[in-house]
Amino acid sequence: MRLIKSAAVALGLALVALPAAAAIKAMTLEELMGITTDVVHGKILEKTTFRLDWPFAGAVYTKLSVEGESLRTLQPVKTDVVFLGSHDARDAFSVSEAPTLQDARVGNEAVIFYFRDPDMPGAFTNRVFGLDCVYRVEQAFGAPVVVGKGEGFAFAENVKLDDVRTAVRATHQKLAAQAKPGK
Predict the structure, then answer these.
(1) Torsion of CA 31, 33, 35, 41, to 10 degrees
(2) Is 149 a residue whose pLDDT tops 80?
(3) What are phi and psi of 64, to 5 degrees?
(4) Which single residue of 87, 140, 152, 183 has CA 20 to 30 Å from 97?
(5) CB atoms closer than 10 angstroms to residue 109
(6) What CATH number does residue 109 fall under?
(7) 3-state helix, strand, coil in the chain (%, to 5)
């Protein structure tokens, strides 16, 4: 009996010691822009949640209504984006990879990467992948700054919004040139 308990404890410790596989993939700005449809710099005007039994029963999504400017095309944007998960305790549905509550507050200025998901049912087709797609913008030393999220994210460190705008536009043009036939 003592041998069985010791084996169980050893097995438990071995499982705890194994490295955990993270669900968030580290992506550079170019990689993130390669899989998203647009990048908007704007203000979060509204935030609501809704249930949608996709991709599994009982899933809860958060919808952010955003208005601003496309950093890819420099055109005005007014759209809704959604992500899996909710910050509302009444929904009882949180997802660790969802954008943070602090980043997704109504009234926030943010840089948001999203893609049009043709597989998502309903009217909400502009999806945010998760934590790596909503970057809060704060004022620092009199200039707007995109708050970085650490190593492995498109913006690892805090970056001036003007520098983000330039980097996104240059990356967009680079990706467009690579997509042209004959390149």
Answers:
(1) 140
(2) yes
(3) -110, 125
(4) 140
(5) 17
(6) 2.40.50
(7) 25, 30, 45
How far apart CA 51 and CA 87 sit, in angstroms, is 13
Q: Which amino acid is it at 136? A: R
Rounded (5°) CA angle 71-73-74: 65
Q: Which residues pair with 62 in a beta bridge?
A: 49, 83
For residue 19, give the DSSP letter: P
| Tokens of residue 118, six digits | 């043709």
In degrees, to the nearest 5, what angle opens at C-alpha 58 toward C-alphas 90 and 51?
65
pLDDT band at 10 (very low <50, low <70, confident <90, very high): very low
What's the average model confidence in pLDDT over 163-180? 94
Residue with token string 């969802």: 98
Please report the pLDDT score of residue 3 as a whole number: 45
Q: Which amino acid is located at 2 in the chain? A: R
CA geometry: angle at 114 spanning 26 and 32, to 5°? 30
| C-alpha–C-alpha distance, residues 123 and 59, integer Å | 16
Mean predicted confidence (pLDDT) in 118-141: 90
Instruction: Give the span between the Cα atoms of 165 and 71, in whole angstroms.
Output: 6
Give how many domains the chain has, as a whole number: 1
